[in-house]
Amino acid sequence: MSPFQLLLSVLATSLLLVGCSRDEQDAPAPLADLLLTNAKVYTMDAERTWAEAVAIRDGRIIFVGSSADAKQHTGSATKVVDLGQKMLLPSFQDVHIHPISGGLAYLSCTLFDEPDLDAALAKIARCVADNPDAKAIVGAGWGWGMFIGEATPDKKLLDAIDSSRPLIFGDGDGHTLWVNSAALALAGVTKDTPDPEGGEIGREEGSSEPSGTLLEGPGMDLMWNSLPATTLEQKEQGLLYAQRYLHSLGITAIQDAMAFLADGDEAGDLDTYRSLQEKDQLKLRVRAAIYWDPAKGLAQIEAIKAASKEFSKGRLQATSVKFWADGILETHTARLLEPYTDKPDALGLLMVPLEDMMAAVPLLDAAGFQIHIHAIGDGTVRYALDAIEKARETNGVRDARPLIAHTQLVHPDDIGRFVELQTIATFSPYWAISDDYTAVINPPQLGEERMKTMYPIAEVLATGARVAFGSDWSVSTADPLMGIETAVSHLDPDGSTAPVFMPEQRISLDAAIAGYTIDAAFTNFLDADTGSVEVGKYADLVILSDNLFDIPTAQISEAKVLATLLEGELVYGEY
Ligand SMILES: [Zn+2]
Question: Count of CB atoms within 10 A of residue 2's CB?
């Protein structure tokens, strides 16, 4: 800027300021519907300003500042709430979550809260006894941590509970089904059934006899395709369950990480959101990442475009596409650059053929879609970045905001590519602790060197790249306070005595909050309207019992969500 230009811009700014203050003197301050006052407001604006009061009118924020100055917005119809020094934040957002399937899982025979295998088997037996007339018992939520040692998710364990009808149990990660013999029979899976492309049928040691697991999407589809379709009504119930749960955690905006289009009798996820929105029951901002079906190849792009156009309206924006590109480490299905240490013939799986992803990503980017790629292994992370790079080379640089989800293993050569390619690295910070997975299951799979490349949250942040957080619920808790605490501490919030996991990858409290607010809003293309407490934005807010900066880190997850507001409307709690 030349001195002359500088002078001009200073003049312009001061004119603007004069103009503003004159306006304010002339026009009376607009009256608020709701005034939240005497609070600790951490605004998450660019300067990280603290404030005391927020005034709201017609669902939008009209004032942020001191409690004294806020009084000018008070009229006879204004509801004034004294928050007694409680903390007020922009409400939380989640950039990778499965609300509909998660809600349905919690409405089924749920094993998420069972601490070990014995408890899970007891719960399954209770579900079997409680539902004598059900044609099949379906549930979800077991974990690989239940099978450390001798036991495996074997059909015989389930046959011993009930062999007369199918028992079908998804793992908490959503990558594996554990089923009994009747379920395998229903799915037509025998020792002669070949593994489907991109999936696997678990086999008994030294034989091709199915053992009772079906791995990854194509493997699990063998089972799902032989069950009755999920109806729209059931999906709505699942979504409403999830919505209540998310509100109770202070969340008002999400990215649905895998929105399925309607398929035959199976109700679509976008139809589910639309249906609730039409009934005025959708109290979440939803960015839906439409599922890329690996079986359909490039031919599905037209259907994705059409669905995006048809369904994107109001709070539902179906403008991302999700590539479920690999599996998970625990089953050796995450795709690595070098073979698994304990299985030297295995590199893991790519669920989407690489050439399809390299071709589809530029085409979808050109059509304006946000690219959302599930990548766990360092191989998949690299291929995802390659595809995003190719889109930029082909289409030029635009405000595309591609994101990689989970980002579990990142080869050191790829760390700098996130900022270079303006790609958002998203993590589930709750996973970056020392637990059965990272302390027991993963080290022999990866070896010492590769373990050090796990969840490089601080390292990616330090390059200047943007980081945002997603819970992957129902894989793990969607509680942002749990996530914030673990991002800062790398310790189990439930107070286990395990050592700090990868201490150098811990981040500041401010950065952790940003990952669930302003940077999540950026990721969800909602930052113009949400993600910070600023004049003009929606009054999407959360009120917490404690100022997170004033309490020990280990107590962050014990702070209570007292109230959640969406556009000034109380959707959870009370003042
Ligand atoms: Zn997911």
Answer: 7
